[in-house]
Design goal:
Elements: E1 3-5, E2 11-17, E3 23-27, E4 49-53, H1 72-86, E5 91-96, H2 100-109, E6 114-120, H3 133-140, H4 149-160, H5 166-171, H6 182-193, H7 197-203, H8 211-218, E7 225-230, H9 238-245, E8 252-256, H10 263-266, H11 268-278
Parallel strand pairs: 3-4, 3-5, 5-6, 6-7, 7-8
Antiparallel strand pairs: 1-2, 2-4
Helix pairs in contact: 1-2
C-alpha cells in the first residue's frame, strides 16, 4: 500500500482506485474514520483516479506521537504533504461529512492549489452554521412511512430534548441512509468499527475552527465548487447545506433525491453521474 511521510514523520497510507485521469483526493469523515467506508464512491473510480488517505491514526496510517495533531486544522498539513507527494500543482479535492472540514480549511489556506472542490453531505462545523433541532425533526418526518420510524423518531426526540443515551444515537442510524436494508446496516456497523475515538475527541478541540475567518475566505474563493446534499440526510439537512453553499461566490448546490448521508450507496448511478460531471477534465 502506498504511503508518505507527514511533516512530523508520521507515516500515512492511502488507497488508490481507478486509472483514468489526474487524481482526486477524497477526505473521509467520521470524524477520524478510516477511508474504507467510502469504497470506490459508487463507481466514481471508473471516471477518475481516486486517492483515499487514511487520516493519521486511522486505517493503515500510523498514530502520531502527539495526539494534539488529530485536531482538524492540523490535518491540513497532511493534505498538503499528500499533494506534494503526488507531485501535483493543483488538486481536485472531495470531502465527505466531517472530512469536508479539513477540505474547507485546506481550501482557505491553499486556495490556489484547489482546482475543484466537491463537498458531499458536508459537516457545517468549520463555517459555524447552526442546525436547529426543528430542522432535523422536519427532515426526519420525511421518513414517517418507514417501518423503523417510530423507534428512531422517539430516539431523535430524546436527543433533541437532551436526554440521549448511547442507545438513542444508535437508534437514529436508519435516518442516515436512503434505504435501511442489509447493505446499509452492514455499512453502518463497519463504519463504527473503523473510527478512532481518541482522535475523534481531539478533532474539534478548541482552536480547530475560526468560522468567521473561514467564511470570509470562502467568499473570495473563485474556483468551481459543488455541494451535494441528501434529501433525507438527518446529519447534514438540506437547509444547512444550502446555507453552506451560499458562502461561496458561485457554488452549485445539488440535492440528491431519496439519499441520506451516504449518497453513493443510495443511488450510485445518480451520484456518479453528478459528481463525475463536476470533476470533468477541461
Amino acid at each position: 500500500m502506498p504511503a508518505f511521510s507527514a511533516y512530523d514523520g508520521t507515516k500515512l497510507a492511502y488507497h488508490v482506485f481507478g486509472e483514468d485521469g489526474p487524481p482526486v483526493i477524497c477526505l473521509p469523515g467520521g470524524p477520524m474514520q478510516a477511508s474504507a467506508y467510502l469504497g470506490e464512491l459508487g463507481g466514481l473510480s471508473a471516471h477518475r483516479r481516486l486517492i483515499l488517505p487514511d487520516l493519521r491514526g486511522t486505517g493503515s496510517s500510523e498514530a502520531p506521537k502527539d495526539p494534539a495533531t488529530y485536531r482538524c486544522d492540523r490535518l491540513v498539513d497532511d493534505v498538503e504533504a499528500l499533494r506534494e507527494h503526488l507531485g501535483l500543482d493543483t488538486v481536485d479535492l472531495l470531502g465527505h461529512s466531517a472530512g469536508t472540514n479539513p477540505a474547507v480549511l485546506y481550501t482557505v489556506r491553499h486556495p490556489k492549489r484547489v482546482r475543484r472542490l466537491a463537498l458531499i453531505t458536508p459537516s457545517v462545523t468549520a463555517v459555524g452554521i447552526a442546525v436547529p433541532g426543528e430542522v432535523r425533526r422536519e427532515t426526519a418526518l420525511l421518513r414517517h412511512d418507514e417501518p423503523w420510524f417510530a423507534e428512531a423518531f422517539a430516539a431523535l426526540e430524546d436527543i433533541t430534548a437532551g436526554r440521549a443515551t448511547a442507545g438513542s444515537w444508535e437508534a437514529i442510524a436508519p435516518f442516515l441512509y436512503g434505504r435501511w436494508d442489509a447493505a446499509a446496516q452492514a455499512h453502518h456497523i463497519a463504519g463504527g468499527e473503523q473510527r478512532n475515538e481518541e482522535a475523534a475527541a481531539v478533532f474539534g478541540a478548541e482552536g480547530a475552527f475560526e468560522p468567521a475567518a473561514t467564511r470570509a475566505a470562502l467568499a473570495r474563493f473563485e474556483a468551481p465548487v459543488r455541494v451535494l446534499a441528501g434529501q433525507f440526510d438527518l446529519n447534514s439537512p438540506v437547509p444547512a447545506v444550502t446555507e453552506f453553499a451560499g458562502l461561496f461566490p458561485s457554488a452549485e448546490l445539488v440535492v440528491q433525491p431519496g439519499a441520506g448521508h451516504f449518497p453513493w450507496l443510495d443511488d450510485p448511478e445518480r451520484f456518479v453521474a453528478t459528481t463525475a460531471g463536476f470533476l470533468r477534465l477541461e
